[in-house]
Task: inverse folding
C-alpha cells in the first residue's frame, strides 16, 4: 500500500470550508487505497496574530524564544484538530498529533529548531489502526519535552522529514499555486508552469525567494531523496511540479527559471584590515546572533585594506547592523554602511553546468535596461545579482525574455 | 517559604495590557518571598472562537471529543506562553507548561476529563530553579498522551488540584469580581460581599449558578481541604472571600446567600409505571449520554402510575429530550414534556442545619409576589425552587430582603 505525506499550508486550512475541501481530497486518496499522513500549517493569519502578541514583549533571549514557541505551536495544534474533525465528519478515521505526540524530536534552538530524530512508532501505530494521522506542522519537542518550532515555513520541513522517516512514496506539498513557475506569474505574465525540476534547481529557486517551498525542506528532501511534488489544493487534477533527482543534463534547458528575493538587505564594512581571519571574525559575530548570511563578497585589497559586503534577510538587518558596529571597532574597520532597499534577482538552471555565456546574456539584458548590478554571486546552477529594489519587475521580465523561458524547451523534446 | 497558586481567568489575561497587569502582581508576590505557581485560562473570547470552529462539524463521538480537546487546549497554551513572556519582560524568571508538561494526568473522558494523578516533579524542578511555573489551565493528558480538557471552568480545577498536590498554603482564584456576594449585585443592589464562607455553602452557591467558581473545583478543594480565596485581579488590596473549613454554626448566619441558575431546563415523564428500577432506568439513559441531572422529583403514584421530573443544564436539553422519547417508549410511559424556560432560585446557609422556618419564610416571600413554585428540592444547607424564568429578578430581590442579607449578621458579632 503506497504511503503519501500530504502537506497543506495556511491558506488550504484557512477556513472551515477550505478544511472540508482538503478533507474530501484526502478521503478520495484514502479510498483509492493509499495510506496518507497529513501535515497542516496554522490557519492563515493565525501565526501572524500569535507572533504579533508575542512581539508585544521586547525579549529575544533563549527563555523568551522557548515561550514564543509554545504560543506559536498552538496555531498548528488547533488546525490539526479541526482537520481531523473534518475527516471524521465524512467518515474518515483520523487522529491529530502535536509535534511532540508525533515523536518529532528537535534540538533546543527555539524558533529555528532542527529535527534531530523522529520516533515513528506513534504514526505507525495510527496507520496500523487504519487511521489518517494529522500532524501539526512547524513543531517538535526538545529531548527535555519543551515545544520547539522549526521557523517560518517549517511545516514543509515537517512533511519532508516525516516522508523520509516513514519512507513515503511521495511528499506532496499542497499550496495555493499550481506548482513551480519559470518566475512569479504576478510579475511576468509569460511565466510557465514547470512539470519537473531538479533538486538543485528547486533548492536555488527556494533559497532565492521563490516562496513555494522552504529551503530547508528542499535540502532535507535532497538529503533523503524524498520525491517531492508541489501542487495546488484547489485544482484536483493538477499534477503540479515534481522535484526529481535525475541528472540527465542533455534534456535540461540551460536556464529553468528566474528567482528573486525582495526581503534582502546589504551590509558593507569599509576599510577592513586585510589579514587572515577577518572574514571569519565578521561572519562569526553575525552567526552568534543566529542570523543567516546569504551572499558574501570581498574584494582583494591593494593597500592592505579591503571592503567586505554581505546580505541578510531584511528582518535581520537592524540587528546585523548593530552587531557590525561593534565588530567594526573590534577589527579596526573604517566604517559600516547598509542598504535595506535592495533585492536579489537570479537565473537558475542545471543546464548552466554545461553551457557558457549565461552570465554575459544576463548582464547584457540588465545593462540594456540601465539596471546597475551592486553584487554578483555565482554557483554551478545559478547566477545572482543584487540590484536596487525599484528595478525588480523590469529585471525579472527582461531576463525571462532573454532566456526565452516562455517557450518550454524541456517539453518540446 | 509559603507557596501560593494564583489562577487568572480569561478576562485577567484578556489583552497584553491585562497580562502585564497581573504579571506585575505576581512579581510583587514573588519579591515578597512567596513561591508562586500561576494557572491561566485562555484569553477571553478565545475558547468561544475555538468551540465555534469545532462546532462547524456535527460530531460528538469519542474521537471527535478527543480532537476538540486538542483544539481547545491550544488557547490556554498560548495564554501561558504570553504570561511567561510578560513575566520575563519585568525580570521574573518563569516557564510555561501545558497540562501534559505539568504532569497533569486525566482519565479519557474527553471534554469533561477528571484529573486522576499529578506528577509534581516538573513543577518542583521549576520552583527549585527559582522559576515561576505558568501552567495552561483546563487541560491535562491521558495516560496514553492524548490532550484532554476538564470542561468549562476547568482552569479553577487545575489550580485547586495543583494546590492540593503541591500542598500549597492557599489557592487564590483571581477573577473580575471582588469575591462572593450574598447574591448577584447586578440583580440586587443590596448584595453584600462575604469575607468568608464555608465550603458547604460555597459548594451550593457554585452548583446553584453563582458562576465565580466551578463546582468541581470547590469539591476538589473540600476533598483536600485546600484553603481557597476568591479575589479581584483588578483591586490589589481586596482580600476577597475566603472559603474555610470551620463549622462553628453558632457564629453563622442562618442564610448566607441567594443563588440562582438561569441555564436550567425541566423534563417530565408523565404516566410512568410505578415499579422498582424505573428511576434508575431513566437516569441511566441520561447518564449514558454524559448529561448531569440536577434536581429530581418523583411523586408517589396512587394508581400504579407516577410523574417523574428532573432538571438538566439548558445546553443538554435537546439531547436529553431526544433520549427521553426513546426511554418513554422502552418503559411504557405516557408522554414526555419539557420546559426550557425555567430557572432555579435557592437560599443557601449552613445555619439552616440548626434553624427551622427557613422554608416557610422562603415560600411565603415568593407567594406574596404570586410566583408559582414548580419544583422544590432541599439539602441540609439549601432550599432550591424551580420557577418560570420571568420571575427570576423579583424572586432574588424579595428573598434577599426576607432574610435581611444586607445586614451582615456574621460581621456584627
Result:
Amino acid at each position: 500500500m503506497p504511503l503519501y505525506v500530504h502537506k497543506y499550508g495556511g491558506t488550504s486550512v484557512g477556513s472551515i470550508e477550505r478544511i472540508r475541501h482538503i478533507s474530501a481530497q484526502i478521503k478520495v486518496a484514502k479510498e483509492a487505497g493509499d495510506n496518507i499522513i497529513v501535515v497542516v500549517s496554522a490557519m492563515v493569519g493565525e501565526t501572524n496574530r500569535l507572533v504579533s502578541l508575542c512581539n508585544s514583549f521586547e525579549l529575544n533571549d533563549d527563555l523568551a524564544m522557548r515561550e514564543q514557541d509554545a504560543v506559536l505551536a498552538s496555531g498548528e495544534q488547533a488546525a490539526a484538530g479541526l482537520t481531523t474533525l473534518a475527516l471524521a465528519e465524512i467518515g474518515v478515521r483520523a487522529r491529530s498529533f502535536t509535534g511532540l505526540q508525533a515523536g518529532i524530536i528537535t534540538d533546543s534552538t527555539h524558533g529555528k529548531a532542527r529535527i534531530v530524530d523522529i520516533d515513528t512508532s506513534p504514526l505507525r501505530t495510527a496507520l496500523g489502526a487504519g487511521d489518517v494521522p494529522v500532524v501539526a506542522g512547524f513543531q517538535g519537542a526538545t529531548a527535555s519535552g519543551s515545544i520547539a518550532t522549526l521557523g517560518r515555513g517549517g511545516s514543509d520541513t515537517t512533511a519532508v522529514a516525516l516522508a523520509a522517516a516513514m519512507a513515503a512514496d511521495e511528499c506532496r506539498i499542497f499550496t495555493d499555486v499550481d506548482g513551480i513557475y519559470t518566475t512569479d506569474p504576478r510579475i511576468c505574465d509569460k511565466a510557465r508552469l514547470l512539470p519537473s525540476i531538479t533538486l538543485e534547481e528547486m533548492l536555488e529557486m527556494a533559497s532565492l525567494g521563490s516562496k513555494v517551498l522552504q529551503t530547508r525542506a528542499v535540502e532535507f528532501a535532497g538529503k533523503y531523496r524524498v520525491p517531492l511534488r508541489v501542487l495546488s489544493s484547489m485544482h484536483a487534477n493538477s499534477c503540479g511540479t515534481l522535484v526529481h533527482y535525475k541528472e540527465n543534463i542533455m534534456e535540461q534547458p540551460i536556464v529553468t527559471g528566474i528567482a528573486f528575493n525582495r526581503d534582502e538587505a546589504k551590509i558593507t564594512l569599509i576599510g577592513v584590515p586585510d589579514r587572515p581571519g577577518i572574514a571569519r571574525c565578521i561572519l562569526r559575530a553575525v552567526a552568534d546572533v543566529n542570523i543567516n548570511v546569504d551572499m558574501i563578497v570581498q574584494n582583494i585589497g591593494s593597500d592592505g585594506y579591503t571592503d567586505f559586503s554581505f546580505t541578510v534577510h531584511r528582518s535581520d538587518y537592524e540587528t546585523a547592523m548593530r552587531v557590525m558596529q561593534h565588530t567594526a571597532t573590534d577589527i579596526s574597520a573604517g566604517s559600516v554602511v547598509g542598504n535595506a532597499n535592495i533585492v536579489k534577482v537570479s537565473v537558475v538552471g542545471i543546464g548552466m553546468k554545461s553551457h557558457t555565456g549565461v552570465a554575459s546574456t544576463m548582464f547584457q539584458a540588465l545593462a540594456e535596461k540601465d539596471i546597475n548590478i551592486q553584487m554578483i554571486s555565482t554557483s554551478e546552477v545559478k547566477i545572482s545579482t543584487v540590484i536596487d529594489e525599484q528595478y525588480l519587475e523590469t529585471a525579472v521580465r527582461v531576463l525571462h525574455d532573454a532566456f526565452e523561458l516562455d517557450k518550454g524547451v524541456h517539453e518540446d523534446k
